[in-house]
Amino acid sequence: MTSAAQPGPKLAAWCGWVVAGGLALTPIIGWLAPLAFAPLLTLMGLLTLPALRIEEEDRPVGIAVVTLVLWAAGSSAWSPFTAKDLGESTAAKLIAETVLFFAAICAARAASARSRAVALRILAWGVALLGVVMLIEGLTGASLYRAVREAINDPIRPDLGVKNAAQGLFVLAMLAPAAALAAVRVARAPWLIAIMALGLVVPSVTLGYDAPLIALTACVLAGLAAAAWPRWAPRGLAALAAAFFLTAPAIVWLVRRSGWYTVLEGDVPVSWAQRMGYWRHAADWITDHPLRGWGLDASRMFNPGIKLHPHDAALQIWLELGLIGAMAAAVFWAALLAGMSRKVRDPALAVSVATGMAYLTFSAFSFGVWQEWWLALGALAALSCAALQRQPALTKGAANVAPRPSTAAVFSE
Fold first, then answer.
1. pTM above 0.85, yes or no
2. More confident position, 239 or 159
3. What's the CA gap between 74 and 54, in Å, rounded?
4. pLDDT in tens, 105-158
5. What does the pLDDT read at residue 267?
6. Distance between CA 114 and CA 399 in Å, rounded?
7. Which of 267, 272, 179, 238 is closest to 356 using CA atoms?
8. Where are the domains of the chain?
9. What is the C-alpha to C-alpha distance for residues 409 and 229, in angstroms, rounded to an integer?
């Protein structure tokens, strides 16, 4: 970004405090109401819209996002799902989210060093606080969450209380990489990382949620690889991500033809068997319209074969947007991850790679592509990584140096 494009000091300070405010609300939202991430990021984007800047490094990812969103919106014309009103229109939401969520990410990049440092301290301590809450929930069967529901005269069944409280594990897993580096680099409290780890691992085991553990494993491995091989690891992961989106239906077809699919479906736990059933049906219906897809939100119309979405981002995009959508998604992830490649090691970029892989892992098993709160959480993780990329490491007895200009690989969707 050129000096002429730099935001003024007032806008920079404003952006930092908006980001800090959003991160301050993150623990309570992540614990009690994850769906509120969508309005939170929307508000943050609206408040910082003047900071929106498209930089040179943003263009490959931006072109892929715009292509995907426009194709998705256009596919509504032949989708069997019809929105009842504008508020139910996924196409309209995607267009607005693309602008506003990216504006929030730009705010983290444009923030002044002082306000951004405050925001990163809030991130570190806030995510650690969420870890403490999740640890208590994991050891007590979500007693805190159920107590809150009873206090507001809205009691909930214990099993549903566990299910709702466990959503905080996904939030914790997505934000922990950036929060961990912020704890070391800015908050100077590396012991917070242990709290985050315990708050993620223990409840995942006690409450029976394996997806956060899978994402944590992928996240750690990807981050370590990017730290050890900063040039080649991001490129290798970019190729892997692109292959995932381009070959997902073929993988299902090949495994089914080998006979292993049915065997696995009968041996895995019920939750995974349900996922495999959705994947099987999705792969079958993809063959009907492999090029253009069935249209945006068509997954909602395939019940009982598929409930709401296939629980796999690649298969959902193939099913709804066809090969064209899958290619756009593949380009997005390839450009995003490959853009993090550097000749020298950079902990902030390694954390960004780890965060991206965590999001991709969850998308492969758990959430629908277009869920507003999930996209918003991705944007929140992205702006956290963006803030770290712009915030230099502090050294004892030394003043801050100017932040480096490179901002490629800001993680968003």
1. yes
2. 239
3. 24
4. 999 999 999 999 999 999 999 999 999 999 999 999 999 999 999 999 998 999
5. 87
6. 12
7. 238
8. 7-390
9. 16
Given a cut of 80, whether residue 316 has pLDDT beyond it is yes
Cα(301)–Cα(241) distance, rounded to whole angstroms? 28
Give the model's confidence band at 402: pLDDT under 50 very low, under 70 low, under 90 confident, else very high. very low
Averaged pLDDT for residues 249-277: 90
Tell me the backbone φ, ψ of residue 189, rounded to 5 degrees.
Answer: -135, 70
Structure-token pair, residue 63: 């072109």
CB 389 within 8 A of CB 340: no
The pair of structure tokens assigned to 300 is: 């909602």
The answer to whether residue 347 scores a pLDDT higher than 70 is: yes
